[in-house]
Amino acid sequence: MKKTTYALAMAALLASGASTLAADTKLGLLMDITGPIASFIPPLQNAANLAVQHVNENGGLLDGQVVPVYGDTTGSSQGAVDAAGKLINVENVPIIMGALMSGTTISAAEAAAIPAGVVQISPTATSPAMTDINDNDLLYRIVPSDNFQGQVLAKMVLDEGIEKVAVTFVNNDYGVGIGGTFIEAYKALGGEVVAEVKHEEKKNSYRSELATLSKAGGDALVVVAYAGDSGSKIVKQALEGGLFTKFIGTDGLRDEALISDIGAEALASSFFSAPTSPADNPNQARLHELYTAAYDEPADKPFVDQTYDATFLALLAIEQAGSADRGKMAEALRAVASAPGEKVGPGDWAKAKALIAEGKDIDYDGAGGNYDFDENGDVAGVIGKFVVDGDVYKQIAIFE
């Protein structure tokens, strides 16, 4: 939603009486607005606001409008618990879209959402640890687990003819999950990991870790970290020390902040993996058209597709449930996300609302693909291979 549209909506809400307030429904949007992935956030907020706008301008939610309520995790576990607790206990949201980082998503789920019986749907959290959480069918995500991304990345590296690598991964749920999966898969496929170092967040210098990694040799350095925290520092310090020239990263490093910090020329031989949409997905093209029209900027940013889809799915679940009853959200979410049902996609709110009113099944296929949840709230997915192209990332291959 554009800022002016949102401001007008909020002004109308505040000026309305109690009867209008009673008809509107709050949606919890739990995001890591500040912290290590802050550079990712503005287009993701735009994507979430666009989904809300599509609902409010095309029939509304239930008998009223959607009121988006943001919570900032600050990129920390305690911040995630506090922000989720406020959304749940103060704002009384029926469902939460978010969080984004694996660690903040898990912390919010275990300490706040699951005990309160609130469904959480993350557009970006990839840690394998999420799969086995005892969540009472309350925790979902619409990107594949890093068990898959790690395997795909191992294949990417070997397909490039890189048979020896050094690996460093950040010591959190995200880094440990994908780092361990990559190392295991790469070795199983015949690659050699000459050294692996688990590093801590928020350090000013990683030169000692890099010295250990460089001394072991290797044709490239695999970095599993967030660009806004340790990732960019490691790449920059490796280049400054002449220790590595080729870098391989995952979605946390596929951040335009890395290009700004390092420069495209220095990253010319590097490549990155990240969840993406199936090839030639018409729903992705449709969302990007809608996004560009709304914000006058391109939509090909990391996780814009998934953030829109997760927000739209959360709103579809409320409409399907017929109320803001938290206890009905999990069943409703599974119903609108999975076959059978008439297909709906980005922007199709009026169609979806009418079908639900008629008692018909719907099946949302999004900009990021289809989302048939398994018993753990996980989905299959697609991983893209990206390279630096000027000041942006260009997708050059897809692995399904």
TrEMBL record:
GO terms in the biological process aspect are:
amino acid transport
> Where does the UniProt annotation place the signal sequence?
1-22
Q: Which CDD domains match?
A: PBP1_ABC_ligand_binding-like
InterPro entries on file:
BCAA_transport (IPR051010), Leu-bd (IPR028081), Peripla_BP_I (IPR028082)
Gene3D superfamilies on file: 3.40.50.2300
Alphabetically sorted, this entry's keywords are: Amino-acid transport, Signal, Transport
Q: Which domain of life is it from?
A: Bacteria
Domain Leucine-binding protein: residue ranges: 26-337
The family this protein is said to belong to:
Belongs to the leucine-binding protein family.
**PANTHER family tied to this protein:** LEUCINE-SPECIFIC-BINDING PROTEIN, PERIPLASMIC BINDING PROTEIN OF ABC TRANSPORTER FOR NATURAL AMINO ACIDS
This chain belongs to the protein called Amino acid/amide ABC transporter substrate-binding protein (HAAT family)
The organism's lineage is: Bacteria, Pseudomonadati, Pseudomonadota, Alphaproteobacteria, Hyphomicrobiales
